[in-house]
Amino acid sequence: MAKTFSDRTHQSFSYQNAGNAEGGPDELNRLSLVISTNIQKITQNTNSVQKMVNQIGTAQDSESLRSQLHHVQNYTNQLAKDTHRYLKELTSLAESSSHPYQVCLLSEH
């Protein structure tokens, strides 16, 4: 399921939760999609962090900005950890697969 939060600049940050792995081609596809979505969110959040960092020491600097920056950094770090775990799951499922197409999916993403 997607988890979403909005910051005070109305940017949205979210990530996909892969849930429990069952195995099979549907699970490989689902994990691939979740990983792809999470990587996009990490990229978006990293861009947002950079914009906030650039505001520190300027007229836009505030406790609210610093708090928001801290929150987005922690959130993105957790997202990266979760995505790493999903990548391990995907690799494990692909390696244990007996169907060649399933292994091919991993190498294409």
UniProtKB/TrEMBL annotation:
Domain Syntaxin N-terminal: 35-98
The name this protein goes by in its record: Syntaxin-7-like
Pfam families: Syntaxin_2
Region (Disordered): 1-27
Alphabetical list of InterPro entries matching this protein: SNARE, Syntaxin_N
UniProt cross-references to SUPFAM superfamilies, sorted A to Z: t-snare proteins
Listed Basic and acidic residues bias regions: 1-10
